[in-house]
Request: fold
Amino acid sequence: MFQSLTPRPPDPLLELIKLFAADPRPEKIDLGIGVYRDETGITPVFKAVKEAEAKLQQTQTTKSYVGPEGDRRFVALVRELAFGKDLSARLGERMIGLQTPGGTGALRLAADVAVKAHARRVILGLPAWTNHAPIFNAAGLSIHTYDYFDTDTQTVQFDRLLHALRAAEHGDVVVLQGCCHNPTGSDLTAQQWHEIAEVVIAKGLLPLIDTAYHGLGHGLDADMSPIRHVLGHVPEALVTYSCSKNFGLYRERTGALFVLAETPKAASTALSIAVDAARPNYSMPPDHGGAVVRIILDDPAIKADWRAELESMRKRIAEIRALLSAQAHAHGLALDAIGTQAGMFSTLALPADAVLKLREDAAIYMPESGRINVAGLAKNSVGRFVGALVNLPRGQLSALRR
Reply:
Protein backbone atom coordinates (compact mmCIF):
# COMPACT_ATOMS: atom_id res chain seq x y z
CA MET A 1 0.00 0.00 0.00
CA PHE A 2 2.78 2.45 0.85
CA GLN A 3 4.31 1.91 -2.59
CA SER A 4 1.49 4.00 -4.06
CA LEU A 5 2.21 7.02 -1.84
CA THR A 6 3.67 10.17 -3.36
CA PRO A 7 6.31 11.89 -1.20
CA ARG A 8 5.36 15.31 0.07
CA PRO A 9 7.80 18.16 -0.56
CA PRO A 10 9.89 19.04 2.51
CA ASP A 11 8.85 22.01 4.61
CA PRO A 12 11.13 24.89 3.52
CA LEU A 13 11.64 26.17 7.07
CA LEU A 14 12.52 22.74 8.43
CA GLU A 15 14.96 22.27 5.55
CA LEU A 16 16.49 25.64 6.42
CA ILE A 17 17.12 24.39 9.96
CA LYS A 18 19.01 21.39 8.57
CA LEU A 19 21.09 23.58 6.25
CA PHE A 20 22.00 25.92 9.10
CA ALA A 21 23.00 23.04 11.36
CA ALA A 22 25.26 21.61 8.65
CA ASP A 23 27.01 24.92 7.92
CA PRO A 24 30.49 24.82 9.54
CA ARG A 25 31.08 28.59 9.41
CA PRO A 26 31.35 29.92 12.99
CA GLU A 27 29.97 33.35 12.08
CA LYS A 28 26.66 31.95 10.75
CA ILE A 29 23.43 33.72 11.76
CA ASP A 30 20.06 31.97 12.04
CA LEU A 31 17.15 34.33 11.35
CA GLY A 32 14.81 31.55 10.26
CA ILE A 33 13.32 29.43 13.04
CA GLY A 34 10.84 31.40 15.14
CA VAL A 35 12.22 31.01 18.65
CA TYR A 36 13.50 33.69 21.00
CA ARG A 37 17.26 33.79 21.50
CA ASP A 38 19.33 35.73 24.01
CA GLU A 39 22.59 37.58 23.31
CA THR A 40 24.52 34.30 23.36
CA GLY A 41 22.22 32.66 20.81
CA ILE A 42 20.53 30.38 23.34
CA THR A 43 16.78 29.91 23.77
CA PRO A 44 16.84 30.07 27.57
CA VAL A 45 14.65 28.33 30.10
CA PHE A 46 12.97 30.98 32.24
CA LYS A 47 14.14 31.18 35.83
CA ALA A 48 10.44 31.28 36.76
CA VAL A 49 9.85 28.05 34.81
CA LYS A 50 12.66 26.34 36.72
CA GLU A 51 11.18 27.55 40.00
CA ALA A 52 7.73 26.30 39.01
CA GLU A 53 9.10 22.93 37.87
CA ALA A 54 10.88 22.48 41.19
CA LYS A 55 7.66 23.23 43.03
CA LEU A 56 5.74 20.88 40.75
CA GLN A 57 8.19 18.07 41.40
CA GLN A 58 7.72 18.48 45.13
CA THR A 59 3.93 18.69 45.09
CA GLN A 60 2.68 16.59 42.17
CA THR A 61 1.07 13.39 43.41
CA THR A 62 -0.09 11.72 40.18
CA LYS A 63 0.57 11.38 36.47
CA SER A 64 -3.01 10.39 35.70
CA TYR A 65 -4.90 12.02 32.82
CA VAL A 66 -5.96 15.64 33.21
CA GLY A 67 -9.12 15.20 31.13
CA PRO A 68 -9.97 16.58 27.68
CA GLU A 69 -10.47 20.13 28.97
CA GLY A 70 -7.04 20.11 30.60
CA ASP A 71 -6.03 21.97 33.74
CA ARG A 72 -9.03 24.14 34.60
CA ARG A 73 -7.03 26.38 36.92
CA PHE A 74 -4.50 26.96 34.13
CA VAL A 75 -7.33 27.98 31.80
CA ALA A 76 -8.81 30.37 34.37
CA LEU A 77 -5.46 32.03 35.07
CA VAL A 78 -4.57 32.43 31.38
CA ARG A 79 -8.02 33.88 30.75
CA GLU A 80 -7.44 36.54 33.42
CA LEU A 81 -3.91 37.21 32.16
CA ALA A 82 -5.07 37.65 28.57
CA PHE A 83 -8.37 39.44 29.01
CA GLY A 84 -7.96 41.16 32.37
CA LYS A 85 -10.03 40.87 35.53
CA ASP A 86 -12.67 43.42 34.56
CA LEU A 87 -13.49 42.02 31.12
CA SER A 88 -13.32 38.43 32.34
CA ALA A 89 -15.82 39.26 35.07
CA ARG A 90 -18.07 41.15 32.64
CA LEU A 91 -18.12 38.33 30.09
CA GLY A 92 -18.69 35.73 32.80
CA GLU A 93 -19.85 32.36 31.50
CA ARG A 94 -20.29 33.78 27.98
CA MET A 95 -16.57 33.03 27.60
CA ILE A 96 -15.33 29.54 28.28
CA GLY A 97 -12.06 27.80 27.48
CA LEU A 98 -9.99 24.64 27.46
CA GLN A 99 -6.31 23.72 27.42
CA THR A 100 -4.79 22.66 24.08
CA PRO A 101 -1.48 21.28 22.73
CA GLY A 102 0.01 24.68 21.94
CA GLY A 103 -1.48 27.49 19.91
CA THR A 104 -1.51 25.19 16.86
CA GLY A 105 -3.81 22.74 18.63
CA ALA A 106 -6.03 25.64 19.66
CA LEU A 107 -6.27 26.85 16.05
CA ARG A 108 -7.28 23.42 14.81
CA LEU A 109 -9.98 23.09 17.46
CA ALA A 110 -11.18 26.61 16.67
CA ALA A 111 -11.49 25.65 13.00
CA ASP A 112 -13.39 22.48 13.92
CA VAL A 113 -15.82 24.44 16.10
CA ALA A 114 -16.35 27.00 13.31
CA VAL A 115 -17.13 24.23 10.81
CA LYS A 116 -19.67 22.68 13.18
CA ALA A 117 -21.23 26.15 13.49
CA HIS A 118 -21.69 26.07 9.68
CA ALA A 119 -18.81 28.37 8.78
CA ARG A 120 -17.48 27.58 5.33
CA ARG A 121 -14.92 30.26 4.59
CA VAL A 122 -11.94 31.92 6.26
CA ILE A 123 -10.82 35.49 5.49
CA LEU A 124 -7.02 35.50 5.81
CA GLY A 125 -4.59 38.39 5.31
CA LEU A 126 -1.32 37.78 3.49
CA PRO A 127 1.43 37.31 4.33
CA ALA A 128 0.28 35.06 7.15
CA TRP A 129 1.87 32.56 9.50
CA THR A 130 2.77 29.64 7.23
CA ASN A 131 0.65 27.14 9.16
CA HIS A 132 -2.58 29.15 9.18
CA ALA A 133 -3.84 28.08 5.74
CA PRO A 134 -2.94 24.38 6.14
CA ILE A 135 -4.79 24.19 9.46
CA PHE A 136 -7.98 25.73 8.06
CA ASN A 137 -7.80 23.65 4.89
CA ALA A 138 -7.38 20.48 6.95
CA ALA A 139 -10.55 21.36 8.85
CA GLY A 140 -12.47 21.70 5.58
CA LEU A 141 -12.67 25.50 5.39
CA SER A 142 -12.08 27.35 2.14
CA ILE A 143 -9.76 30.36 2.28
CA HIS A 144 -10.26 33.83 0.84
CA THR A 145 -7.15 36.02 1.02
CA TYR A 146 -6.39 39.72 0.83
CA ASP A 147 -3.18 41.76 1.00
CA TYR A 148 -2.59 42.69 4.64
CA PHE A 149 0.88 44.15 4.19
CA ASP A 150 2.96 45.89 1.51
CA THR A 151 6.54 44.68 1.91
CA ASP A 152 8.08 47.43 -0.22
CA THR A 153 6.51 50.27 1.79
CA GLN A 154 6.38 48.30 5.08
CA THR A 155 2.78 49.37 5.71
CA VAL A 156 -0.43 47.62 6.72
CA GLN A 157 -3.00 47.76 3.90
CA PHE A 158 -5.92 48.54 6.17
CA ASP A 159 -8.17 49.65 3.32
CA ARG A 160 -7.83 46.20 1.77
CA LEU A 161 -8.56 44.54 5.10
CA LEU A 162 -11.76 46.57 5.47
CA HIS A 163 -12.74 45.83 1.88
CA ALA A 164 -12.30 42.10 2.50
CA LEU A 165 -14.45 42.25 5.63
CA ARG A 166 -17.18 44.30 3.97
CA ALA A 167 -17.24 41.84 1.06
CA ALA A 168 -17.40 38.83 3.40
CA GLU A 169 -20.53 36.78 3.88
CA HIS A 170 -22.49 36.29 7.09
CA GLY A 171 -20.79 33.58 9.16
CA ASP A 172 -17.36 33.89 7.56
CA VAL A 173 -14.40 33.45 9.93
CA VAL A 174 -12.00 36.42 10.07
CA VAL A 175 -8.46 35.55 11.21
CA LEU A 176 -6.72 38.36 13.09
CA GLN A 177 -3.39 38.23 14.89
CA GLY A 178 -3.60 39.71 18.36
CA CYS A 179 -0.17 41.36 18.48
CA CYS A 180 3.39 41.07 17.12
CA HIS A 181 2.18 40.05 13.67
CA ASN A 182 3.95 37.04 12.19
CA PRO A 183 5.65 37.49 9.71
CA THR A 184 5.59 41.30 9.36
CA GLY A 185 5.83 42.75 12.88
CA SER A 186 3.24 45.37 11.83
CA ASP A 187 0.14 45.45 14.00
CA LEU A 188 -3.19 47.19 13.75
CA THR A 189 -3.77 50.40 15.70
CA ALA A 190 -6.36 50.64 18.45
CA GLN A 191 -8.60 52.72 16.17
CA GLN A 192 -8.34 50.11 13.42
CA TRP A 193 -9.35 47.38 15.86
CA HIS A 194 -12.39 49.49 16.80
CA GLU A 195 -13.38 49.78 13.13
CA ILE A 196 -12.95 46.04 12.65
CA ALA A 197 -15.28 45.37 15.59
CA GLU A 198 -17.94 47.57 13.99
CA VAL A 199 -17.73 45.77 10.63
CA VAL A 200 -17.67 42.32 12.26
CA ILE A 201 -20.86 43.14 14.17
CA ALA A 202 -22.60 44.69 11.17
CA LYS A 203 -21.74 41.80 8.83
CA GLY A 204 -22.25 38.95 11.29
CA LEU A 205 -18.68 37.68 10.99
CA LEU A 206 -16.85 35.42 13.44
CA PRO A 207 -13.47 36.81 14.54
CA LEU A 208 -10.73 34.30 15.29
CA ILE A 209 -8.00 36.14 17.19
CA ASP A 210 -4.69 34.29 17.24
CA THR A 211 -2.58 35.35 20.24
CA ALA A 212 0.90 33.84 20.14
CA TYR A 213 3.23 36.60 21.38
CA HIS A 214 1.43 38.22 24.30
CA GLY A 215 3.82 40.48 26.22
CA LEU A 216 6.54 40.69 23.56
CA GLY A 217 5.20 43.78 21.79
CA HIS A 218 4.47 46.71 24.08
CA GLY A 219 3.77 44.91 27.35
CA LEU A 220 1.18 42.53 28.79
CA ASP A 221 -1.70 44.98 29.10
CA ALA A 222 -0.86 47.15 26.10
CA ASP A 223 -0.68 44.15 23.77
CA MET A 224 -4.18 42.99 24.68
CA SER A 225 -5.97 46.31 25.15
CA PRO A 226 -7.43 46.56 21.60
CA ILE A 227 -8.41 42.89 21.62
CA ARG A 228 -10.18 43.35 24.93
CA HIS A 229 -12.18 46.18 23.34
CA VAL A 230 -13.25 43.90 20.48
CA LEU A 231 -14.23 41.08 22.82
CA GLY A 232 -16.21 43.50 24.93
CA HIS A 233 -18.39 44.42 21.95
CA VAL A 234 -18.73 41.48 19.54
CA PRO A 235 -21.35 38.80 20.30
CA GLU A 236 -19.14 35.85 19.36
CA ALA A 237 -15.43 35.14 18.92
CA LEU A 238 -12.76 32.47 19.05
CA VAL A 239 -9.43 33.28 20.71
CA THR A 240 -6.36 31.04 20.57
CA TYR A 241 -3.52 31.51 23.03
CA SER A 242 0.03 30.12 22.99
CA CYS A 243 2.47 29.95 25.90
CA SER A 244 5.41 28.96 23.68
CA LYS A 245 7.04 32.38 23.40
CA ASN A 246 6.01 34.33 26.49
CA PHE A 247 6.76 31.42 28.86
CA GLY A 248 9.48 29.81 26.72
CA LEU A 249 7.57 26.51 26.76
CA TYR A 250 8.01 25.63 23.09
CA ARG A 251 8.47 21.88 23.42
CA GLU A 252 5.85 21.52 26.16
CA ARG A 253 3.06 22.43 23.69
CA THR A 254 1.02 24.63 25.99
CA GLY A 255 -1.94 26.67 24.81
CA ALA A 256 -5.63 27.37 25.19
CA LEU A 257 -8.78 28.02 23.18
CA PHE A 258 -11.43 30.45 24.39
CA VAL A 259 -14.94 30.63 22.98
CA LEU A 260 -17.08 33.75 23.37
CA ALA A 261 -20.80 33.26 22.69
CA GLU A 262 -23.96 35.31 23.06
CA THR A 263 -25.16 33.21 26.00
CA PRO A 264 -23.54 30.92 28.57
CA LYS A 265 -25.53 28.01 27.15
CA ALA A 266 -24.17 28.62 23.62
CA ALA A 267 -20.63 28.90 25.01
CA SER A 268 -20.99 25.62 26.87
CA THR A 269 -22.30 23.92 23.73
CA ALA A 270 -19.39 25.27 21.67
CA LEU A 271 -16.94 23.99 24.28
CA SER A 272 -18.52 20.55 24.09
CA ILE A 273 -17.91 20.62 20.32
CA ALA A 274 -14.25 21.49 20.95
CA VAL A 275 -13.89 18.64 23.45
CA ASP A 276 -15.55 16.28 20.99
CA ALA A 277 -13.10 17.36 18.27
CA ALA A 278 -10.13 16.91 20.60
CA ARG A 279 -11.02 13.33 21.45
CA PRO A 280 -10.12 11.71 18.07
CA ASN A 281 -7.18 14.08 17.52
CA TYR A 282 -5.12 13.95 20.70
CA SER A 283 -7.64 12.86 23.35
CA MET A 284 -6.20 15.02 26.16
CA PRO A 285 -3.59 17.78 26.32
CA PRO A 286 -0.15 17.25 27.90
CA ASP A 287 -0.06 18.42 31.50
CA HIS A 288 3.48 19.58 32.27
CA GLY A 289 3.46 22.98 30.53
CA GLY A 290 -0.01 23.86 31.78
CA ALA A 291 0.97 22.92 35.34
CA VAL A 292 4.08 25.09 35.10
CA VAL A 293 2.10 28.11 33.87
CA ARG A 294 -0.51 27.53 36.59
CA ILE A 295 2.14 27.53 39.32
CA ILE A 296 3.80 30.66 37.91
CA LEU A 297 0.56 32.63 37.71
CA ASP A 298 -0.68 31.36 41.08
CA ASP A 299 2.51 32.24 43.00
CA PRO A 300 3.07 36.02 43.41
CA ALA A 301 6.83 35.73 43.80
CA ILE A 302 7.35 33.42 40.83
CA LYS A 303 4.92 35.47 38.77
CA ALA A 304 6.95 38.61 39.50
CA ASP A 305 10.11 36.81 38.33
CA TRP A 306 8.33 35.73 35.14
CA ARG A 307 7.06 39.22 34.40
CA ALA A 308 10.55 40.65 34.86
CA GLU A 309 12.08 38.04 32.54
CA LEU A 310 9.41 38.59 29.91
CA GLU A 311 9.92 42.35 30.06
CA SER A 312 13.66 41.84 29.68
CA MET A 313 13.04 39.79 26.53
CA ARG A 314 10.67 42.41 25.15
CA LYS A 315 13.19 45.18 25.74
CA ARG A 316 16.02 43.22 24.14
CA ILE A 317 13.98 42.69 20.98
CA ALA A 318 13.12 46.41 20.92
CA GLU A 319 16.80 47.31 21.37
CA ILE A 320 17.83 45.03 18.49
CA ARG A 321 15.15 46.61 16.32
CA ALA A 322 16.35 50.13 17.14
CA LEU A 323 20.00 49.19 16.53
CA LEU A 324 19.21 47.47 13.24
CA SER A 325 17.15 50.42 12.04
CA ALA A 326 19.84 52.95 13.01
CA GLN A 327 22.76 51.05 11.46
CA ALA A 328 20.82 50.40 8.27
CA HIS A 329 19.94 54.10 8.07
CA ALA A 330 23.62 55.02 8.42
CA HIS A 331 24.42 52.79 5.43
CA GLY A 332 21.66 54.18 3.23
CA LEU A 333 19.14 51.38 3.73
CA ALA A 334 15.45 52.03 4.32
CA LEU A 335 14.79 49.82 7.33
CA ASP A 336 13.32 52.55 9.52
CA ALA A 337 10.03 50.64 9.85
CA ILE A 338 11.79 47.80 11.68
CA GLY A 339 12.36 50.18 14.58
CA THR A 340 8.63 50.81 14.94
CA GLN A 341 7.39 47.26 14.44
CA ALA A 342 6.78 44.85 17.31
CA GLY A 343 7.65 41.33 18.29
CA MET A 344 10.07 38.83 16.89
CA PHE A 345 9.47 39.11 13.15
CA SER A 346 9.85 41.48 10.22
CA THR A 347 9.71 40.81 6.50
CA LEU A 348 12.30 42.47 4.27
CA ALA A 349 11.71 43.38 0.62
CA LEU A 350 14.34 40.96 -0.67
CA PRO A 351 14.01 38.72 -3.73
CA ALA A 352 14.65 35.00 -3.32
CA ASP A 353 18.02 35.21 -5.11
CA ALA A 354 19.19 37.83 -2.59
CA VAL A 355 18.20 35.55 0.29
CA LEU A 356 20.17 32.73 -1.33
CA LYS A 357 23.21 35.00 -1.81
CA LEU A 358 23.13 36.02 1.85
CA ARG A 359 23.12 32.34 2.76
CA GLU A 360 25.95 31.39 0.43
CA ASP A 361 28.22 34.42 0.88
CA ALA A 362 27.57 35.50 4.46
CA ALA A 363 26.13 32.41 6.24
CA ILE A 364 22.93 34.32 7.01
CA TYR A 365 19.88 32.05 6.97
CA MET A 366 16.29 33.21 6.45
CA PRO A 367 13.27 31.93 4.47
CA GLU A 368 12.98 32.93 0.83
CA SER A 369 10.06 35.18 1.79
CA GLY A 370 12.52 37.58 3.45
CA ARG A 371 11.03 37.08 6.90
CA ILE A 372 13.62 37.50 9.63
CA ASN A 373 13.50 36.55 13.28
CA VAL A 374 14.82 39.77 14.84
CA ALA A 375 15.46 37.89 18.09
CA GLY A 376 17.97 35.75 16.20
CA LEU A 377 20.32 38.74 16.06
CA ALA A 378 22.68 39.76 18.85
CA LYS A 379 23.95 43.30 19.30
CA ASN A 380 27.36 42.26 18.02
CA SER A 381 25.92 40.60 14.89
CA VAL A 382 23.68 43.46 13.72
CA GLY A 383 26.60 45.22 12.03
CA ARG A 384 27.60 42.12 10.09
CA PHE A 385 24.01 41.57 8.97
CA VAL A 386 23.69 45.17 7.75
CA GLY A 387 27.07 44.89 6.03
CA ALA A 388 25.93 41.76 4.21
CA LEU A 389 22.80 43.58 3.03
CA VAL A 390 24.84 46.53 1.78
CA ASN A 391 27.10 44.16 -0.18
CA LEU A 392 24.21 42.66 -2.14
CA PRO A 393 24.07 43.56 -5.85
CA ARG A 394 22.21 46.84 -6.37
CA GLY A 395 19.44 45.14 -8.31
CA GLN A 396 18.69 42.78 -5.43
CA LEU A 397 18.63 45.61 -2.91
CA SER A 398 16.61 48.18 -4.84
CA ALA A 399 13.58 48.05 -2.51
CA LEU A 400 15.78 48.62 0.55
CA ARG A 401 17.77 51.58 -0.80
CA ARG A 402 16.86 54.97 0.61
In short: The first strand starts at residue 29 and ends at 30.
